[in-house]
Every structure is written in structure tokens, then in C-alpha cells.
Specification:
Distance between the termini: 31 Å
Shape: rod-shaped
CATH topology of the largest domain: H-NOX domain
CATH superfamily of the largest domain: H-NOX domain
Number of strands: 12
CATH architecture of the largest domain: Alpha-Beta Complex
Length: 386
């Protein structure tokens, strides 16, 4: 997905709906993009100001907003509230506060814009202490709609409120989305009296500090959550890498080892080495005797291995999971296993696994054996990915 817009923009849209139409937020997020729809938590992603999305995602969000509210100028209202309610993000507020007034802020408007969007350049034609003319030159290669123009008009209208001034008066004299070469705004704002400006400069750092601390605390909690998610993903990734390494080394062993018993021994040890499983047993089908026989077990105590040596199950034994997997050729996952049940296979009563998986060994579409893998720890579980 291309990165045209900071999620400061999508967050502004979402927060507007959370405050004014909380029951319609889910509709706002419908059909934004396959990449967004496939996320476990699209709302969280679109509220994270460090994320970026394509222009098409924002276009779709504005289209949803118009359809939900029936208001063709909803983008203007969202832009105005994002500025008037000081929801631009604490970094942007610091920049704007530091510039002391709208005129100084406008002189650095391109640097501020670059933190929000990568779809236009901004030209400040002229400024005075209480008025300015600004032109927005949109990039032709980046998709855009008139909602972008309205959203920016709303922000410019609300910018003076950051310094506790009334909203600006904004007049659009050109519109790129109506055929002009750019969007041109002429706007005027009220000037502060020198006394009010002095009071504001004295109180401004404390106001800014409080709001910044509040948002930093929110970001800290978000970072903790992201760290936990990344740690979990890293653990899962390591498991997948270990599984692939196990497959690779098993394949290497199969190509280099002609002795079947040695091949099974190597493979079973690799299996328990690279996975969270504690036990692995290889069974082979004996067509002549109509049974499936244990050929090798890894992760077993020597006494138990000797006891189970040559363990055999008739293929017709309906109550045997091993026989059923060998005959049907379908894997079976047992997340929780009661080995003390009267119906439990005698092998399971001997191995005492807490959970297990049985997978058929296939050759030319025919089952020739079964791998039984299990763990003996209560806390772990086995999934289909195993």
C-alpha cells in the first residue's frame, strides 16, 4: 500500500464519528482497501498516527462519511474540528505553538504539511499580521477528490483557535478539483491584543505541557501493546523458521541416508529438536500382516522405548487412532488428551501425552505409515500448523 497520508488524517475522521456518530464508526471503515480489511484491528491501525495509508483509503473514508451523514461538506467539518479541538497530534501542536501566531505558522506550513500528507506542495503567496493567501499545488500522480480541498479549508479555518482566537474567514478563489491549476485560499483572522498575547505566551507552555503529557501517556501504553504483539510475532516466526529448518535437514537426511531405520531415527530427533514437541514416534504399515508397527521413538525414556519396541496395531482396529490415520490418510490433532479414559489406546496410556498430533506418511497417494508427535506439558497446546 502506498503511503500518501499520515493516519493523523484517518484518526481525525474516526474521532469525529466517535464523538458525533459513535454507532456508525463500523460503517465508516467498510471497504477501505483489501490491506485494511485483512487487518486484525483496522480501527487501531487507522488511529495510530505513525502509520500511513494510500490516498484511495482516505478517499473511501470521506465517501463513507458523506454517505453516512448525507452532508457533502462533512470533510470541512472534520478538518475544522481536528484543528479547533486541538487533535492534530502533540508534535504538530508544539510546532504551531512555537510559532506563536497564525502568520508565523503559515510561513512554515510546508514543513507542517509534510507531517500529514505527501500529495501536494503549499505556496504562501503573501501574509500580513491578520491575513494571507495560500495555494495548494496537488500532485497529478496521487489520486484526490474535492473532499481533500474541503478538509484543508476546515483545518485552515480552525488554526487560529489554537491560540484561542476566533475561527478564520476562508474564501476559496480557485479550486483544482473544479478545473483550476491549484486550490487558492484567501483567509483572514483576528489579531490578539498585546495584553492577551502576553497572557497567552505565559500560559501557553503549561497548557501545551499538560496536553502533551496526556498524549505521551497514551502513546506509552500503545508502545507497550505493540511491543507485546511484536514479541508474540517473533516467537511465532522463530517457530516457523525452526519448522522449515527441520524440514530442510530432514530432506537432506533423506537424500543422504539409505537405511530406513537410521532415516526415521534422524527425522524423529530433528522433529523434537526444532519444535515444542517432547515425543515423536514413527510407525510403518505392514501390508502383509495388516498392521502398523512402531519403528522408532524419540524423546522416550530408555525403559519406555524398550517396552514399546515392536508395538503393533491391526489396521482393522477401529478404536485405534493410529490405525484410523494410517487407513484414512487424514491428520488428526488432539489439543487435549485424556490418557486415563477406558477407551484410550494402550500406547497413549504408556506415553502419557497431554496433547498430540498424528500425521500419515504418504507415498504416491498411499499411506505407508504414521508419525505421532506429542508433548507432555500441561500448559502447551498443539495446533494444525504443528
Amino acid at each position: 500500500m502506498e503511503k500518501h497520508h499520515s493516519c493523523l488524517n484517518t484518526r481525525a475522521i474516526i474521532e469525529y464519528f466517535q464523538e458525533n456518530h459513535p454507532d456508525r464508526v463500523s460503517r465508516l471503515l467498510e471497504g477501505l482497501a483489501p490491506e485494511i480489511d485483512s487487518l486484525a484491528n483496522p480501527l487501531e491501525f487507522l488511529m495510530e498516527i505513525n502509520n500511513w495509508v494510500s490516498s484511495q483509503v482516505v478517499i473511501r473514508m470521506f465517501a463513507n462519511a458523506r454517505a453516512i451523514t448525507g452532508n457533502d461538506r462533512i470533510a470541512f467539518e472534520i478538518g475544522f474540528q481536528s484543528a479547533a479541538r486541538k487533535k492534530l497530534g502533540y508534535v504538530q501542536r508544539i510546532i504551531m505553538f512555537a510559532h506563536k501566531n497564525p502568520r508565523r505558522t503559515l510561513k512554515r506550513v510546508q514543513a507542517i504539511n509534510d507531517k500529514f500528507n505527501r500529495n501536494k506542495t503549499i505556496e504562501v503567496v503573501n501574509t500580513t499580521r491578520d491575513r494571507a493567501t495560500v495555494r495548494l499545488h496537488w500532485f497529478q500522480e496521487v489520486p484526490g477528490i474535492i473532499d481533500f480541498c474541503l478538509f484543508n479549508q476546515g483545518i485552515y479555518t480552525g488554526i487560529p483557535t489554537i491560540w484561542n482566537l476566533p475561527p478564520a474567514q476562508v474564501v476559496e478563489t480557485k479550486c483544482f478539483f473544479k478545473g483550476d491549476d491549484c486550490c487558492e485560499y484567501y483567509f483572514k483572522w483576528e489579531r490578539k491584543s498585546r495584553w492577551k498575547e502576553a497572557v497567552f505566551r505565559w500560559s501557553m507552555p503549561w497548557t501545551l505541557l499538560k496536553s502533551t503529557i496526556d498524549e505521551l501517556e497514551q502513546d506509552k501504553e500503545l508502545l507497550k501493546k505493540k511491543f507485546n504483539e511484536i514479541h508474540k510475532l517473533n516467537v511465532q516466526l522463530k517457530e516457523k523458521i525452526d519448522q522449515l529448518l527441520c524440514l530442510h535437514q530432514s530432506g537432506t537426511a533423506a537424500l543422504s541416508e539409505l537405511n530406513l531405520d537410521e532415516l526415521l531415527k534422524v527425522s524423529m530427533h530433528l522433529l523434537i529438536k526444532f519444535t515444542k514437541l517432547d515425543q515423536a514416534c514413527a510407525f510403518l504399515v505392514d501390508d502383509q500382516k495388516g498392521s502398523v508397527t512402531l519403528h522408532y521413538g524419540a524423546g522416550l525414556e530408555p525403559e519406555l522405548a524398550a517396552q514399546l519396541h515392536g508395538y503393533r496395531v491391526p489396521l482393522k482396529e477401529e478404536n485405534s487412532l493410529i490405525a484410523r490415520v494410517a487407513v484414512r490418510g487424514v491428520p488428526v490433532v488432539i489439543p487435549r488428551l485424556d490418557c486415563h479414559s477406558p477407551s484410550a489406546d494402550s500406547l497413549f496410556r504408556a506415553l502419557q501425552p497431554k496433547a498430540c498430533i498424528l500425521v500419515p506418511l504418504m507415498m504416491h497417494g498411499r499411506s505407508i505409515g504414521v508419525i505421532l508427535a506429542a508433548h507432555t506439558r500441561e500448559a502447551d497446546a498443539i495446533t494444525k500448523s504443528d
